[in-house]
Write a structure and sequence with these properties.
This protein is 50% helix and 17% strand. It is of the alpha+beta class and 810 residues long. Strands 1, 2, 3, 4, 5, 6, 7, 8, 9, 10, 11 and 12 form a 12-stranded mixed β-sheet that branches. The protein has a 6-stranded mixed barrel with strand order 15-16-21-18-20-19. A 4-stranded antiparallel β-sheet has the order 14-22-13-23. α13 runs antiparallel to α18, α14 runs antiparallel to α17 and α18 runs parallel beside α21.
Amino acid sequence: MSSLLQDLRYAWRTLANSPGFTAVALLTLALGIGANTAIFSFVDGLLLRPLPYKDASRIVRVLEKPPLGERNGISTLNFLDWQKDNTAFDFMAAQTGAAMTLTGAHDPIQLRAARVSARYFDIFGIRAAVGRTFVPGEDQPGKDKVVVLSHALWVSQFGSNPSIIESKVSLDNEPYIVVGVLPAGGAFDRAFAQLWRPLAFEPSNMTRNFHWLTSFARLKEGVSLEQARANMNTIGARIERDFPESNKSWGVIVEGYADTLIGPQLRTSLLVLITATGLVLLIGCANLANLSLARGVSREREVAVRASLGAGRSRLVRQFLTENVLLSVCGGVLGIGVGYGLMSWLQTLVPPFSFAREAEITMDARVLAFSLALSVFTGVLFGLAPAWQATTPDLAGTMKEGGRGSSGGSRKILRDTLIVTEVALAFVLLVGSGLMMKSFFTLMNTEMGFDGTNVLTMTLPIARERFPDPERLNLYLKEIRTAVEVVPGVRETAYSCAPPMRGTCYGMPWQVADRPLENKSNRRGGFFKIVSASYFTTLRLQLLKGRGLSDRDVKGSPRVLVINERLAKRDFKDANPVGRRLLIEEIIPGKTELGPDIAWEIVGVIRDEKVMGMDDDRSAGVYVSNEQSPAYGGTLSVRAGSNPATLQKSITAAIRSVNKDQAITDVRTVDEIKELSVAPNRIQSTLLGIFGTVALLLAAIGIYGVISYSVAQRTHEIGIRAALGATSGGLVRLILSRGLALTSAGLVIGLAGALGLTRLMTTILYGVGARDPGTMIAAAFILAGVAAAACYVPARRATKVDPIVALRYE
C-alpha cells in the first residue's frame, strides 16, 4: 500500500507537469467512457437488469400461434379452456386494453386503462400500497365495477387522498369503486395503463374466432418452461381437434416473460450502439497509446537512471501503469458527467412508452461500477504496451540505435500498428453511420401515400355503453364532423378507426369469393380499416382504379370496400380486382364476436398508405365505410387551410358543443405523427453520426501525431536529402506516402470489420443494403481525404527544414 500511494503521488506530479498531454487524454477518455456509460445505461435497463418481480423466471406469456404467423391474440373460449385445463400454472390471467374517460369533475379526461383477470397482480407479485388489488370473483359480471389506480394517477388526479379508497369515481359515466393504489416508482407506475379494472366476460365475448386477449401465467414451483409448453400443446391440440372451424392448424406459444420485453429490432439497435461506443473508446485508446509511446522516448533517461539504481522492470512497468490508470480513472469521473448528460438527452428524444414498463433507465450503482471497471480496463489497455516499451532493457543501446535520425525499431512498428487499427475502426464506424444516415434520409423522403399537409388528428374515445345502437353512433359522429366543418379555416374532416401511420382497427382473414373455399382459420388476410367516405379526399389518397367510398355506401346498400395497391398485386396479380368480391366475416360493432361471411365488392384500388409507420412496406388491406361497419372510438382528421394547430381550441369547442363530456386526446398534426414514427431511426442515425465524426477526428489526430513525430525523428535524414537536392514536392510525397500507406492498410482491414457490423444492422436499415457500395466508397474517400490532410501539415513543415541547421543540430 505504501508503494501504491508513492506511485500515485509521483503519477499525479508527472501528469501535472504535462498539462497538454493530460488535457488531451482527459478529453479523449471523458468522451469515450461517457458515451459507453450512457449507452450502457440503456443496455442495462433494457437487457441486463433483472425483472423487478419475485421469482420472475416463473412468469410467462401465453399466446395463440396462427398457421401463417408466429403469434396472435387469444379468443375468449380458448383462454378459458387453457385456464381451466392446464396443470403447469399457479395462476393464469388475461389482459386487454380499454381506455376510459374520467368525468364528473372538470373537463373529461381520457385515461389509459387495462382490463385484467382477477389474479393478474398475483402473477407479478404486486401488492397495493393503499387498499388492495382484485380478489377472486371480481372478474365476474356484476362484480366488476371496481378499479385499481397507479400511484402516478392517484397523485395527479386525486391529490394522493387516502380517502379515495372505497369511494366512487365516474368512468365513462358509470360509477366505479376505487379499491387500491399501486406502489410508487415501480414497474406498474411506468406502465402504459393508468388504471386497471376486472375483465368480466359477457355472453357476446364467448367466441373462438375473435382474437383480442393477451395472457400471462406463473409457473408452478418445479415446473419448467418446456413442461409448460408440452402441457399447453396438448390442450391446444385438443381444441384444434374439437373446433376445426376456428382452430385448424392453430397452436399455443409459451415464452418466458423476460424474453418478450425487447423486440429484435430494439435489441439490434442497442447492440449496434454499444459496439459503436466501444469502437470510439478503442480509437481513443490507440491515440493515447501513441501519445504515451512518444512520452516514453522523452523519459528514457529517467527510466535508465531508475533502473541503474536498482528498480526492476516489473516495478517500472507498475509505475507507468499506475500513471495511466490514474489518468483513465480521472477521465472516467469526467466521463460519468458526460454520460449522464448524454443519457438524459437521449431520454428526451425517445417517444413515451417506447420501452416495456420494466425498463428503468438510470445511472445507478450498476452503471457506475461499469464505468469504473471500464476506466481501469482502459488505463491498462492504452498503458500496457507503452509501459513495456518505455522500460525495455539496454536503454543506452536503444538510444544509440534510434537517435534522432531514426524512426525504426519496435516503437515504430507499434505506432504504425496503432494507426492502422485506428483507421480500420474509424472506417467501420463511418460505414455504420453512413448507412444509418442514408437509411434515415431515405425514410424521411419516402412518400406516405397521402398528403398530410395542414392535417390535424385527434382521438375521440367513445364507450359502447353510451351508444349501444350503431346507427346512433354514426349519427353522433356525423354531428361532430358537421360541427367541426363550420369552424372557420376548416376545409374537410374525416373519421377513421385509427390515426394515419399509427396502425389500424382490425386484422381480418379473407378470401376471394370466386375461388375454392378455404377453412376460415387458415385464410390469408390483412388490415381492415374503418373510415368515413371522406377519408380518401381529406387525406388526398390517390385513386388508381374504380372509385372511392361514397356517402351512398350506407347500411342496407351493397357492401363495398376499397383495397390498397399492395393487396391488389398480392391477391390478384395482373388482373383487375374492381368488381371482384372478398369474403370477410362480419365484425359485430362493439363486441368481440364475428358474424357470417359477407361478400364485399371491390369498387376501387388506392395507392399504398403507410398504415403502420413510415417504414411500412408490407401492409396489405381494405377500407370499409363506418356506415356499413361501425366502430367505437376512433380518430377525427381535420384538413385546414393553414396551420391547423391554431384551430385546436375552436375545434375542441365545436366538439364539446355536441357533447360536453366527449374526451379529446392525442391531438397531433400528421407531421408530428411522422416525426414520432421516424424517432428511433433519427436517434440511431444521430448517435452513429456523432460517434463516426468523433472517430474521424480521433483518427486524424492520431495520424497527424504519428507523422509529426516521424518528421521530428527524421529531421537529420530530411536535412541530408534536402542538401543532396531533394525538392519540396519530393519531400512532401515522401512524408505523405507513409501516412497514406498506413491509411490504406487500415481501410483494407476495416472493410472486413465493416462487413461484419453491417450484417448486424440489416434489420434496422430502410431502403439501403447493408453492404451498400456507395456508402463504403464514400467512407473510404472521406477517411483517406482526412488522413491526407492530417499528413500534409507535417509534410509541408518538413520542406521548411534548413539543411544546415538540421545537420548542425545533429
